[in-house]
Amino acid sequence: MKAIRIALAGLVVLFALNSAIVAQEKMKAANEPKPDVPLKILVVFTEYDGEKKISSMPYTLSALATEDRTLSTASLRMGLRVPITTSTKDGQSQVVYQDVGTDIDARVRPQADGRFLLWMQIRRSSVHTLEGANKESAWSMGEASGRPILRAFSTGFDGFLMREGQPVQTTTATDPVSGRVLKVDVTINVVK
After folding, report:
1. For the CA atoms of the chain, what is the radius of gyration?
2. Contacts of 113 (CB under 8 A, 6+ apart)
3. DSSP 8-state secondary structure symbol assigned to residue 1
4. pLDDT score of 8 more than 80
5. How many helices (H) and strands (E) in the chain?
6. All residues at 6 or more sequence positions from 176 whose CB lies less than 8 Å from its CB, including other chains
7. 66, 175, 78: which is closest to 183 by C-alpha?
8. pTM score > 0.85 for this model?
């Protein structure tokens, strides 16, 4: 009987030691840096007028998902500089240039469960003119009638948790002038 108690006590001690070792290994694995993961980030701007799709504009960025957020910013700049005529204090006309287009900045951190934590800032601007009562048309170079209107959109999110290949609609916004709806979808894919 005494030998059985000693054997059971020994098994309990071995089980406790094994549990402690497993817990220690899990803590060590959780504290180890995750390997860097090369990614493609797809950002799609889709504009709707009611139910009708007006446009869909995709942008792809290459990024590196890494534990060190300060070293892994992916950026995209796409646009042009638009001449805009303004008046000086003296009433004279002058031309100034305004940046118009899309700016995207992203950082990604890999998670232990295979998902990714995404930080993103998006800025988008465009030039339009109004024709008649709330009717909109795209602005064109050299246009003499009507003054151009600069439309601006920006959004950002910190720590959006995403799975690979799963498109996520991150933002939906309605233009206050035209009533058109802009949706922003983001997809992350691992580069193999």
Report:
1. 27
2. none
3. -
4. no
5. 1, 9
6. none
7. 175
8. no
